[in-house]
Design goal:
Shape: globular
Number of helices: 7
GO molecular function: carbon-nitrogen ligase activity on lipid II; glutaminase activity; transferase activity
Radius of gyration: 17 Å
Strand content: 25-35%
InterPro entries: Class_I_gatase-like (IPR029062), CobQ_GATase1 (IPR033949), GATase_3 (IPR011698), Lipid_II_synth_GatD (IPR043702)
Pathway: Cell wall biogenesis; peptidoglycan biosynthesis
Structural class: alpha/beta
Order of helices and strands: EHEEHHEHEEEEEEEEHHH
Bound molecules: glutamine
Largest sheet: 6 strands, mixed
Subunit structure: Forms a heterodimer with MurT.
Keywords: Cell shape, Cell wall biogenesis/degradation, Glutamine amidotransferase, Hydrolase, Ligase, Peptidoglycan synthesis, Transferase
Length: about 250
């Protein structure tokens, strides 16, 4: 039986700061340890899109990086919107989170239209929001990471945030205590860090959703006892890192 899972790393050349590539490594490793065979695809400007994609991971970037990819991004907008509404799990960090919204008006006044997967808009300000970020999410518990952005994001009415910032950090805009957004199986967030090594609950949500969509259920039947022990060890490392950070 095939156990392949196709992961797309979106614009890794231009949208990958503050360790966001660690999210791809984490998903790859955890899938292997669950007994699946991850295939990592990279999509940069002008590349071909593969035939099949089970999960999409996108990182953050400077305003200049966002401007660089934008025309190519528009060419992929319909595809990304369709995959999002089909329920493909996606994790979009910071710069790509902003571009999955309705628009990002940068601090120099340039307006970059987003692809509207997430009902949210972002406006750049002079003061950057930088530092550790801790939030509470109903689905994932405490989520920990690091933020560095000038854009203030405001969610439209009825859009579910990923979590509430009550301890540390600014979150979407430094005003309403929301952080990130969740639309269908798309997660948008300001959490760099990397996010996934420290927050296994989110990794496992992305993995179980991707595997279940492709194969009907998530089974660990191909997992060896060594692989199970390694997952337990990674979860313990994450738990310790979370204790230190909290
Ligand atoms: N350029 C965007 C901003 O500053 C996103 C930054 C990021 O991805 N960390 O708001």
């Amino acid at each position: 039986m095939s156990t392949t899972i196709d992961i797309m790393s979106l614009y890794p050349k231009d949208m990958n700061i503050y360790g966001d590539s660690g999210n791809v490594l984490t998903i790859r490793r955890r899938l292997e340890l669950y007994g699946y065979e991850p295939v990592i695809h990279q999509y940069n400007q002008g590349d071909d899109w593969p035939e099949h994609v089970d999960m999409i991971l996108g990182g953050g970037g400077q305003d200049t990086g966002q401007k660089k990819i934008i025309d190519d991004f528009y060419m992929r907008a319909d595809l990304l919107r369709r995959l999002a509404s089909d329920g493909v799990p996606m994790l979009m960090i910071c710069g790509l989170y902003q571009l999955f919204g309705e628009y990002f008006e940068t601090v120099d006044g340039t307006r970059l239209d987003g692809i509207g997967v997430i009902g949210a808009y972002t406006v750049g300000q002079d003061v950057r929001m930088i530092g550790n970020l801790v939030e509470h999410s109903e689905q994932f518990g405490d989520v920990l990471g690091y933020e560095n952005h000038s854009g203030q994001t405001f969610l439209r009415d009825g859009v579910q945030p990923l979590g509430k910032v009550d301890a540390e950090g600014c979150g979407n805009n430094g005003q309403d205590h929301t952080e990130g957004a969740r639309v269908n199986n798309v997660i948008g967030t300001y959490m760099h860090g990397s996010l996934l090594p420290k927050n296994p609950a989110i990794s496992d949500f992305l993995i179980t959703t991707a595997v279940t969509r492709r194969y009907g259920s998530f089974e660990k039947t191909h997992q060896t006892s060594e692989q199970a022990a390694e997952i337990a060890r990674l979860d313990e490392v994450a738990a310790n890192a979370r204790k230190t950070a909290a």
